[in-house]
Design goal:
The complex is a heterodimer of chains A (about 110) and B (about 110).
Chain A lengths: L2 E3 L4 E5 L4 E3 L2 E3 L6 E6 L5 E7 L5 E3 L5 E5 L4 E6 L8 E10 L3 E5 L3 E6 L1
Parallel strand pairs in A: 2-12
Antiparallel strand pairs in A: 1-4, 3-9, 5-6, 5-10, 7-8, 8-9, 10-11, 10-12
Chain B lengths: L4 E3 L2 E4 L5 E6 L6 E8 L3 E9 L2 E5 L6 E5 L5 E5 L8 E8 L7 E2 L3 E5 L1
Parallel strand pairs in B: 2-11
Antiparallel strand pairs in B: 1-3, 3-8, 4-5, 4-9, 5-6, 7-8, 9-10, 9-11
The chains are: A mainly beta (about 110), B mainly beta (about 110).
Chain lengths: ~110, ~110
Amino acid sequence: AQSVTQPDIHITVSEGASLELRCNYSYGATPYLFWYVQSPGQGLQLLLKYFSGDTLVQGIKGFEAEFKRSQSSFNLRKPSVHWSDAAEYFCAVLYNQAGTALIFGKGTTLSVSS
Amino acid sequence: KAGVTQTPRYLIKTRGQQVTLSCSPISGHRSVSWYQQTPGQGLQFLFEYFSETQRNKGNFPGRFSGRQFSNSRSEMNVSTLELGDSALYLCASSLSASETQYFGPGTRLLVL
């Protein structure tokens, strides 16, 4: 069955430090992968997506992610975290069969310490 | 271009009542999907509509239903509300299948 795993429920990073959020997926076909961010009480904002091509994708707010097929991973990175990056981050795979649906991981909450 | 809009933003209902939530997609988007977000279950897919047809449905009871109009606006309905239906309901739109989904701000439903 299709699934997405985000192993880290909560991560705390110092402001200015680098960040990596992990995501592993299980999907039989070529995956379409996404990272979304959610601030408290808000909807989901798209950070970046991978459909095909270059395995390193750039997104908004200085985020990037690398698709590694051999490891079934799509980890999100940022070289220098800002306090405003504190939020919940969701990795998702697009399940495309007789219609489309996003399958989400459980999310990783990022706290930023000063 | 305006984003996805959802109305109302907040709702309080009592058990046994029914509720209708509305979603207006981004102009030109023909696919609308609905998701339920709860602390325990996370984000779960409810259903997807494209050109007024339900193409995909998640694992939810029949109390959850939806429809899409010719202008691509969508509504979802929950009948006979239960306490466990308290959640943030998110709507997302995309141009067509296998495209990026853009989310609205959600409707927060509280069932008492």
